[in-house]
UniProtKB/TrEMBL annotation:
<feature type="transmembrane region" description="Helical">
    <location>
        <begin position="6"/>
        <end position="31"/>
    </location>
</feature>
<feature type="transmembrane region" description="Helical">
    <location>
        <begin position="119"/>
        <end position="141"/>
    </location>
</feature>
<keyword id="KW-0472">Membrane</keyword>
<dbReference type="InterPro" id="IPR002771">
    <property type="entry name" value="Multi_antbiot-R_MarC"/>
</dbReference>
<protein>
    <recommendedName>
        <fullName>UPF0056 membrane protein</fullName>
    </recommendedName>
</protein>
<keyword id="KW-0812">Transmembrane</keyword>
<dbReference type="Pfam" id="PF01914">
    <property type="entry name" value="MarC"/>
</dbReference>
<comment type="similarity">
    <text>Belongs to the UPF0056 (MarC) family.</text>
</comment>
<keyword id="KW-1003">Cell membrane</keyword>
<keyword id="KW-1133">Transmembrane helix</keyword>
<feature type="transmembrane region" description="Helical">
    <location>
        <begin position="68"/>
        <end position="85"/>
    </location>
</feature>
<feature type="transmembrane region" description="Helical">
    <location>
        <begin position="192"/>
        <end position="211"/>
    </location>
</feature>
<dbReference type="GO" id="GO:0005886">
    <property type="term" value="C:plasma membrane"/>
</dbReference>
<feature type="transmembrane region" description="Helical">
    <location>
        <begin position="43"/>
        <end position="62"/>
    </location>
</feature>
<feature type="transmembrane region" description="Helical">
    <location>
        <begin position="153"/>
        <end position="171"/>
    </location>
</feature>
Amino acid sequence: MIEYLKYFILIYGGLFAITNPIGAVPVFLSVTRDLGWKERREIATKTAITVVITLLVFALIGQWIFKFFGSSIDAFAIAGGILLFRMAMEMLSGNISTVKISREETEEFSGEAVTLEEVAIIPLAIPLLSGPGAITTVMLYTARSHQIFEKALIVASIVAVGLTSWLILYFSSKIQERLGRLGIKVMTRMMGLILASMAMQMIINGIRGAFGL
């Protein structure tokens, strides 16, 4: 039981670092700056639901994607590790990774009149939270899990990350007031450091598997 708990914490911690909902707070407040409290709550809810659905879909169909494109898990791990490492380097500088969302995209959605559904799905859920890094990670975790209980823990971790993201976005104003922009940048750097170590381990595991080391 303890091993399963450790496995859950490992997956949840990794996904939390990759999605980095705390770092997404300034973006969320920027694109919802002209909306009231009820609209922000609705967007936070739809964003969290979209994140969960997106990650669950790729977790469930990941193995068929590997087969369709003829890619091995080890090759995908190396490519995914490189992608995550790039994200980590940008996060270590205190910035939201441009692999997720660019500055131009943020300004585009904060400056135009768009529907709540559009804001919640793009850019908040995709690609800000459930971007390429998170999708790659859940696909790899699912591909490397062989027991039903392990797959269930992956699903539980995705749901937990979605719930955490909802809570953080729901209380985004208070979080920014307490942490400030400097505090959020510090948290983003911490998540970047965790992500960098995950990326390197992913690359190492991929190289070992590919070359039979």
